[in-house]
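Reviewers of the previous submission asked for a worked example of the structure-prediction workflow described in the proposal, so we include one complete record here. The input consisted solely of the amino acid sequence. No template or homolog information was supplied to the procedure at any stage.
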Amino acid sequence: MKFKSTLVAAASFVVLATSAHAAEQYRIGGGPAGGGWHPSVSAGAQLLNSELGDKFKFNYSPSNGSVDNVRRTAYGKFDTAWGHVGQVFQAWNGIGLFKEDGALKDFRIIANVRKQTQIVAVLADSPIKTYSDMKGKIVNLLNKGSGSNVNCKNIMAGAGIIDEIDTRNLGFSDSARALGDRQIDVFCSAGAPFLIPALTQLSISKPVRYISLSEAEQAEVIKSSPFYAAVTIPVQADVKGMTEPARSIAYDVYWLANKSMSDEAITAMLETTADPENLKKLAAVAGYWKTLNGNFANLKALGIPLHPSAATYWKSRGFDIAGVPVAAF
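From that input alone, the workflow returned the following structure tokens.
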């Protein structure tokens, strides 16, 4: 009996020791196939696991995009993911696409990934010159569940044509191909910040150009959705057929974390991905990473809080956090 008790005690010690050293498990959300977030976040997860795998394990999961990411992170189905500021704002306040959810407060901002713009394009020989010219035309608004889809709808609504266009919801991979084959008349998607690789590639064989909002249309979009900012996209030399700048909207992409993540995990995650040498490696694989930063000025007006661990980290990197709301759970 004494021998048996000793074995049980020893086994218990092994279990406890193993548990004590088990890595914290986190699920990180990405994006849809064909989009820029899918390879970018997947590469980030691989780097994190490579450098932090003994303490923290990050399991990558594809998603439908920004709306999906924000909702799943807010509910804890994802521990961390990226999201457009528009969906972050709506989730925090329980409005728009998140009206039925109510205000969701179980997430915090931990980084600013980059600023994006909305690109609306046609083939260069298209008769469409303005947003008004799109009435009665086939306009692709990208796949439902993506932030790009929401932004496309918002920009079309601000231009006053949302109810007068024939909409499609093709994904990233099919949109440029459909434009080139003239199956759709107008291509709409998020740019990073001013280019979409598939559209740029298409322009080599079939020149394209960007459609510009009028000043009044641009102001109306921003009035309806105050998390947007005005931007004028300069002529892009890589986009064959683009000869004039285009007014559009700009918006931040934020990195979110659910309350399920430990302070130590968030700090380690930022220290690893935002390390200058690691950013070079990530940017070489996926350009989205090269602009990762600690600029949270927009949060002052929106009232959405930064995670304390993120505030400490970005302040140590020299970013000005003064006035930015910071709140623990």
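Residues 6-19 have pLDDT under 50 and may be disordered. We consider this example representative of the routine output the project will generate in years two and three.
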